[in-house]
Structures are given as structure tokens and as C-alpha cells.
Amino acid sequence: MDFTFGPQAQAFRTEARAWLADHLTATTTAGRAWERELGAHGWIGLGWQSPGSEPARHGGTRGPYGNRCGSLTEQVVWGEEYARAAAPPRSGHIGENLLAPTLLAHGTPAQRDRFLPPIARGEELWCQGYSEPNAGSDLAGVRTAAVLDDSGTTYRITGQKVWTSLALDADWCFVLARTEPGSVRHHGLSFLLVPMDQPGRIEVRPIRQMSGESEFNEVFFDGAHASADHRVGAEGDGWRIAMALLGYERGVSTLVQQIGFARELADVVTLAVDNGAADDPVLRDRLVRQWADLRVMRWNALRTLGTTDPAAPSMSKLLWGRWHQRLGELAMAIQGASGSAGPAPRPTSSSAAAPGDPTSHLAYQLGSFQRLFLFSRADTLYGGSDEIQRNIIAERVLGLPKEPRP
């Protein structure tokens, strides 16, 4: 199979690389300003296609929502160049890559016209309201309830979501809620678009991780409002919409993610060479295996782009989650005993710590390899645990009996 890119894709790569070089500076950070810069030049929503339209063939033309139209190959190229340039993490990822494709496939024309242009301009940020304290990997256990008022125009939402990325900065949240009282499992759920600016009705609480950072949040809904016009799909059809959205988490984003993985692996190899750990045949073998496995993951991701194979997303998640964990473990092994201590002592005076430092409660500052190790412990849990991915493959692909459920 040919995994090379043609002349048009290479020309697009040159354009993308030049634009990033011109617009990225040492002070560029993630956030609304950077999202608006991307949006102003059409780089948000490169893969969006209007329903019924022909697939885009060149990333220079503009779509109906202000986005540049790009082929699947050009989407891969842009993602790779963005990661290779070490550009800031995207604050608009959830709106662009999860909600937008869902609205294009399942939303109404009015919903697409309302929500896609602000996402394309980088003006509105989104978060995902799926997981709950007792409904994480088993998402069908959702208890957050939404009741339609007597006028039939507004839902009132009550419940709690957890592990909600970007909730502190988000303008909107798409929420999976139970709209049919007494319903169980996959039935009676609806997919609602909820404005986050509702003081007294929505509260966001950051969750401190063992790395000291707070990338996730708890979100509490106390009678929060959502317009009935902002329900995607029919009432009770939320499970189908929610599962369709999860399918967009893989694909191009997996290839982009692997650029970051390659950069991390290169840093680990450099450390091993510098401190002599590469002379150890066991550690050297583990490094080579990591490199080889990463190449295989890339080829597999390219091979399955655009596929309808139901096993592909689950296989991808199983591969990269455990690979990244092994890389974190290898980084700690290469550091040796020094990996158990921080590279820089924490100032003894609390006033000497940097303002807003998320690790200020720790006795020492974490190094990049320690952060890699600690964060990667979650890779086999978030986005669907390894156990859930194996169940999906067993039940939906191999046709094995379903796991007993209470």
C-alpha cells in the first residue's frame, strides 16, 4: 500500500508550514486569541462538508461556514504540520472536531447555521457533557435528567457531569441527558446543546490531578435551561447521536496525535543517549520497539482513514493508549533513581511560588518525563477504557455474546 502524499498534498504542506511559521511566535498560547487567528484564515473546520456536497479537493476554497474546504489528505497534512510546529493545544478542538461533524450529519439547517460559523471563526468554545460519577465507561448509565417545560420550548436540566475538559472556558456544552423518566440504559436519552453562561444554574469545579494540573472539571446543573430547538435529533434518540459523535474522535486526530508521540519519543531517546542508558541492551531494545510500534500505528491509521470498519476506532484506541503508557514507563526507567525526585526544589516560601501554578501544592516541580508518566496512566481509561474497547470488538465485530449487565 502506498502511504506517500502526492504533489498537491505536498504543495498544501508547504503552504501550511509557511503560514504556521509566519503566525506562531514564542508567546503564542492556547486560547481564544489563537482560535480567532486560526479562524480568520480559514484553518478551523478544514474537513467540514455540507450535506450532499461533493468531497472537497483543495484546501484553498471556502465553505459555507467560513471554513477552508480540504480533502482528507489535506486534513492529515494540516494536522501533521500543526503538531510538528509545536503549536498550542487547540481550545476549539471539541467544537470543531466533535460537535461540528455531528451537526453536519444529524443537525437541522438552522442548527448548522447558528453554531458552525462561530466555531469556524474561533469565537465560541465547547465542552462535552457525557461522563458522570457512575456513568463513565458505561455511558448508558447516565442519570442527568432534562424535563421539557409546559410550553414545550425549554428543557430544565439537573444532574452532574465529570471529567469535562475545557469546561471553565467553554461557552456551550453538548449534554447527554435522560428526557424520559423511568427509562434505562440506552433508551430515553436526548442530545442537548446547553449554554454555559447560566450563573446559579451551572457550576464548574476544577479537578486536581496527581500531576498537579486541573485539565478536567466537574459540572453541576441545577435547573439549567436548554432550548428545545437545540436538541439534536429526536427526543429519545440521544444514544445514537452520542455514539456517532464518538466515532469522530479517531481518524485524522489519531495521526496528528502521533506527531506529538514522535516528539516525546525523540526526547526520551536523547535522554537515554545523554545519560548512558542507551548502552543498556534491555533499555535499547525497548526504545527500538517503541519506535517500531509507532511506525506501525501510523501505517494502520493511514490504512483505516475513512473506513467504516466498526473495529477500527477501538483498535486504534487500544494501540495508542498502551503505547503511550509504555513510553512513560520507559522514560522513568531511563531516568533511574533521579526520576523519583523533582528536577528543581519547590521554594520554601509559598509567596515565592509562581502565581496560579497548578502544582503549588507539591513538594517539588515535576519534570516533563514525570508529567508524561503520570498523565499517561489515564490513557487506557479516558475516551473509553480498554475494557470497553475490547467489549466493542468482541460484541460488534466478532459477534460474541454480550457481557451480562445488571
UniProtKB/TrEMBL annotation:
Annotated Acyl-CoA oxidase/dehydrogenase middle domain residues: 127-222
Keywords, ordered alphabetically: FAD, Flavoprotein, Oxidoreductase
Entry-linked InterPro entries: Acyl-CoA_Oxase/DH_mid-dom (IPR006091), Acyl-CoA_Oxase/DH_mid-dom_sf (IPR046373), AcylCo_DH-like_C (IPR036250), AcylCo_DH/oxidase_C (IPR009075), AcylCoA_DH/ox_N (IPR013786), AcylCoA_DH/ox_N_sf (IPR037069), AcylCoA_DH/oxidase_NM_dom_sf (IPR009100), Mycobact_Acyl-CoA_DH (IPR052161)
Domain named Acyl-CoA dehydrogenase/oxidase N-terminal: residues: 8-123
Source taxon at top rank: Bacteria
Chain intervals for the UniProt region annotation (Disordered): 336-357
Annotated Acyl-CoA dehydrogenase/oxidase C-terminal domain residues: 236-398
Record's compositionally biased regions (Low complexity): 336-356
Cofactor: FAD
Family indicated by similarity: Belongs to the acyl-CoA dehydrogenase family.
Official protein name in the record: Acyl-CoA dehydrogenase family protein
Provenance organism: Streptantibioticus ferralitis
